[in-house]
Amino acid sequence: MRWTVVVPLKPLARAKSRLADTAADGLRPGLALAFAQDTVAAVLACAAVLDVAVVTDDVLAGRELAALGARVVPDEPGGGLNAALAHATAVVRSRSPESPVAALNADLPALRPTELARVLDTAAEFPRSFLPDAAAIGTTLLAASPGRELLPAFGTDSRARHRASGAVEIGLDAVDSVRQDVDTGADLRAALALGVGPRTAAVAAHLLLPGPPGR
Ligand SMILES: Nc1nc2c(ncn2[C@@H]2O[C@H](COP(=O)(O)OP(=O)(O)OP(=O)(O)O)[C@@H](O)[C@H]2O)c(=O)[nH]1
Ligand SMILES: C=C(OP(=O)(O)O)C(=O)O
């Protein structure tokens, strides 16, 4: 089974606000774009993936991610993350009703295609499933097998809400790169330690990142 992966991306000028301490206003949009480019490039390189749909209203990001090979779906609802994901899933399914669909955050710059393949192969065993983020509070991936609705509930405490919605929690070991979303400076350091893609590495080289606490 090969998946359609839906990647949501909010307008770059508003993205990654929690990284304000780490990246100045002038650098943050470029950093958010680099995260999305490295994420989408890794998804497209994954053997378990058929195609990628990026749902965004950002013109520059849409152009750059289309150049990598993603399809761009306009964020027509304009009603936030879950509305964007439900809309993109409906667009994907209107063309291919039987496609398995997985939503994946755009802030996974350390993503490795082989680890994503293991997660998606596991997701194929369940009607709906999800992968908790590295902090074990949120969600980085939510998957729906053919014929199942995605029913996205991303946002605060989404791990608990996805579990309560009946989605099966994927408990695989050694899929850190699929779980390591980057919301804070500490997350960015953790992603750099795992090894990020080339676009994120280039932008991060311009940031003054403090070392781990206690050094
Ligand atoms: N298309 C779309 N994507 C969104 C929207 N809100 C958030 N996203 C994306 O959903 C994922 C998680 O988003 P958030 O954690 O809410 O936002 P963020 O920009 O990553 O970080 P913060 O600004 O620090 O909250 C990221 O890939 C975002 O770009 C939205 O309204 N529309
Ligand atoms: C939207 C989510 O991600 P983030 O950690 O980026 O807020 C989430 O975990 O549901």
Automatic annotation (TrEMBL):
Binding site for phosphoenolpyruvate: T139, G155, S158
Pathway participation: Cofactor biosynthesis; coenzyme F420 biosynthesis
Pfam family, one: CofC
Matching Gene3D superfamilies: Spore Coat Polysaccharide Biosynthesis Protein SpsA, Chain A
Reaction catalyzed: phosphoenolpyruvate + GTP + H(+) = enolpyruvoyl-2-diphospho-5'-guanosine + diphosphate
Domain of life: Bacteria
GO terms of molecular function: nucleotidyltransferase activity
EC code(s) of this entry: 2.7.7.105
Keywords for the protein's UniProt record, in alphabetical order: GTP-binding, Nucleotide-binding, Nucleotidyltransferase, Transferase
Its job: Guanylyltransferase that catalyzes the activation of phosphoenolpyruvate (PEP) as enolpyruvoyl-2-diphospho-5'-guanosine, via the condensation of PEP with GTP. It is involved in the biosynthesis of coenzyme F420, a hydride carrier cofactor.
NCBIfam families, alphabetized: F420_cofC
Assigned protein family: Belongs to the CofC family.
PANTHER family: 2-PHOSPHO-L-LACTATE GUANYLYLTRANSFERASE
UniProt name for this protein: Phosphoenolpyruvate guanylyltransferase
Source species: Streptomyces siamensis
